[in-house]
Amino acid sequence: MKSVSIILSGVVLASLPAAKAFAAFSASGCQITQAEPVCVCVSAKGKHGKTFECDDPKLGPKCTGKGGVIKHLLEGDDPTNPLTIVCGASNAACDGPFTCPAPVDGAHQTICGQLYDLEDSSKFQAAGATGTACTTTTVDGPCSLDIVAYDAVGFGTNPATAPALTSGAVFIDDCGRYRVPDVAIPSGAFIELAIDDADVAKHGPTGSTNTVTVTTPKQAGAATPNFDAWVASKATTDTWELSGAPPVSGGLFVPIFHAMISKTNRDLQDGVTFTASGSPVPARDSYFVATEASRDTIDPTANSTGINGTVLVTGASLSDGPIYSGSGGGLSSSCVWETHGGTSLPSILSVQDFRPQNAVSETCDR
After folding, report:
1. What is the pLDDT of residues 234-277, one digit of tens each?
2. What CA–CA distance (Å, rounded) separates 153 from 168?
């Protein structure tokens, strides 16, 4: 019988006959399938559902069990039968459809989506999640959180005095799916969602997450489905700071550059330089290590995004207007990066997606 070395986080767990090795590895939360089961667990760290090949330099040395799919083709294997490693077993209860109904009338908007961990883009779920609605505040996990909607202009001007927009009862389940129904349409053009602990005493970095915000255009009378929201623990942002990032206390704007126009495609784009009014801002931006799929370590010499597509920016202000964008990333002449406003508010992480869009008189090939 063939033997398999199973490696988790760089540590060899076993070198056993294949069946026993798989059993040992399955206990860690990963599933392995291949007709010829000769394999080494490589990396499943990174964004959920990302697929790599074995010769891809982006492939890391460890498997975290936090989510993701890798099709790893070992040397000499049949290319039509790659090894598939799934870390974090699929949960049918969490993977099923999630409804985002229309609001009660034309003066309201409903916003729905999934909570993700900003450290590695994994879904922010409770262990053994079943899709059960949160009814009691827990110490950690999705049910420890609350989501509040604001007029983005008011919040970006002064979060301490901005009144919350009225809405229906916020729904969060243990899968980390959320629904903010019937948000009253603000006078400004955008709605900002603030994600923080439900326990007010834990607001800021002391609870499950730092205060994190995401912004979406207002759409009167419409539902906004599949809108990503984020959490970022103190442990995550402390790791950033230890590697050279500016502290969250000063406020961080967090652009995430996506490879494709489609909002259902979560592939991230490396090689993008953040710009303000068309120019780089090297004194204000911090990029992660180029080969790091997770968001852990700042590279002080980097001047563009690594494979996690992300940059941390200080000094972003609402008063600047929509001047923030990007350059590079392999875009053809038919594409340009979206332009957005942004804020670096004290003790808040403001996350903003940037995607390619059509250049003037062109159709973007992304």
Report:
1. 999 999 999 999 999 999 999 999 999 988 888 889 999 999 99
2. 21
Helix (H, G, I), strand (E, B) or coil at 300: coil
- The answer to whether the pTM exceeds 0.70 is yes
Alpha-carbon span 5 to 40, nearest angstrom:
6
Ramachandran angles phi, psi of 126, nearest 5°: -75, 150
**Closest alpha carbon to 84 in 74, 98, 75, 76:** 74
Separation in Å, CA 79 to CA 6, 18, 35, 218, 249: 22, 21, 12, 47, 49
For β-strands 311-313 and 285-288, DSSP reports them as antiparallel
Residues in the chain: 366
Q: Structure tokens of 361?
A: 């008189």
**How many CB atoms sit inside 10 A of residue 202's CB?**
16
- Domains, the chain, in order of start with CATH, read 3-90 (no CATH), 93-231 (2.60.40.1120), 234-358 (no CATH)
CA 339 – CA 354 distance, rounded (Å): 8
Map residue 78 onto helix, strand or coil: coil
Nearest to 134 by CA among 171, 168, 179, 99: 171
Residues 6+ apart with CB under 8 A from 30: 41, 44, 63, 65, 85, 86, 87, 88, 89
Q: Which of 337, 273, 274, 270 is nearest to 308 (CA)?
A: 270
177/226 Cα distance (integer angstroms)? 10
The tokens for 126 are: 């409770």
